[in-house]
Structures are given as structure tokens and as C-alpha cells.
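ugh ok fine here u go
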Amino acid sequence: MKRILITGAAGFIGSNLTKRLLEEGNFVIGLDNFYTGQKANIENFLNNENYKFIEHNVIEPYEIKVDEIYNLACPASPVHYQKNPLFTFKTSVFGIINALELSRKTGARLLQASTSEVYGDAKVYPQHEKYFGNVNPNGVRACYDEGKRAAETLICDYRRVYGLNTKIARIFNTYGENMDIKDGRVVSNFITQALRGENITIYGDGNQSRSFCYISDLLEGLILLMKSDITEPVNLGNPDEFKINDFAHYILNLTKSPSKCIYMPLPSDDPHKRKPDISYAKTKLGFMPKVKIEDGVKKTIEYFRTRIEKP
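structure:
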């Protein structure tokens, strides 16, 4: 039985990872300060003898004896991370420093949840791990983009200086159960608006693209990466790509919603084309997304039906 720490444990990915790791027979310790995490996401674990939850802000140091660390703590959607950009940047930088210090003291393996946002509004398509990105360091998204880039720098330097066993997962758009209905990103926005019969809000002309990965596939990739000897960054996502316009109409069809699409100005520095090159993950990890978009979206719609208050 491994003792595994998950920071950001009450969040979307953290709570799903907790469930998976408990099912595999591990002892899981969850850290979260509920800035964006939801208490409802961890309620089912609190009576599990192999689970312990600690309410804590990762900006502050902590000491826990563990074998593995999944550092997931950070606001991840523009709505949340732009609300308090200084806090967001501190969470990325001080949060990873504290996780790395714990790894150094305990010898624990550490996996960092980095992001496709390190590529910015990419000029390379699809995005591969050797691409250094096109990030605006002074823009409204920089608190998140540059915070994650800084975290990667710290991880690599700690590994070189102290010989830590570290992993970096560059996570592309992920969706599924336990998403916050106020998340503010494409999947949650479109499904929520469709189920409520509200207008579907599309930013820009809708010709920009995203690739969507179902949560169970991402978890498989994270666990494979943690078990591996890989130390360089690895893209994890699903390369199946949708134009935003097409995805909006796809959601409307699946929900049978009467909603209409409306268009708003594209936010500053919003990426135009986002698609992961996962050839490295395929070759080195045997990672290959299995859940078809139709199956994953249907499950997500049913989850949102249970969470949305009827008008």
C-alpha cells in the first residue's frame, strides 16, 4: 500500500484521481483549501479508512510522510485564475516549491500537473513537447501560463540539483464527472447552458479548435507517467479535434436543447488551435485515449443533469 498525496484533491481531476487510487488499494492523503475545489467531491471518501483529508493552502509549507505526490493544486480555468492573478501565480510557484521540498525530504516521486497553456497561442500544430511556446508574459492569462512554466523550471532545477524523481504532465482539455458547473470552460459552459435552455456563448468566430480528453483516459496517463522513468515533460490528452462551432452544435444535438448560439469577442491571448501531439506518450508510456467523444460527453451531460438546479 502506497501513501499518496494529492494536492488540489477536491478539484475535478484530484477527486477522480483519489477514487482511482483508492480503488487500487492505496492510502490517499488529500490537501485542498477549497478555493475552487468542492467539498461534495470528497464526501464519499471521508469514511474510508484509507483516506485522510487535510484542509491546507499549498502556498504554505507542509510535512507529510508519503511515497508519491500528485501536485494538482491551482485554479485552472480563466474565470478562476484571473479572479486573483497574484494568488494563482503564488499557488503555482510556492505550491511546487513546497511539494518539491517534501519530495526532497521524503524521497517521494512527484508528478506535476502542468498544462497545454505552456504553449500559449501556439504557432506549431499539433503541439509537441519540444515546442517552447508562444506565451504573452504580460497578458491576463500569464498568471496561469507563466506560473506553470515557472513550476516546470523549478522542477527541472530541483531534479538536476537534488536528483529528485519528478514527472511533468502537460494536460490538455479534460472533461467528465466532478467538473464545476461554474468552471467557465467550453465543455461545462456549453452543457450547462444547453441544459438550462440558455444561449450558448461562443467567444470569437467559433472557428478556433480544441481537443477534448475524457477524465478516465487522463487518469490512466497520469498513473502510467508516475510509474515510468521519464523525467521530461509529456503531453497527455486526446488529439480528436473539434471546432468550437461544431462542438456547440454537437452538445445541442445530444441535449436536444432549444438553445441558440450567440457570439462574443474573443478574450485576449486565447489560443486559436489546440491539439496535442501524443506520439511521445504513446511510444514511451503506451498511452492511448480509449473513450470516444460521444460516450464521454453523454456521461458528462448526465452528471451535469444531476447538478443543475431547474429554473
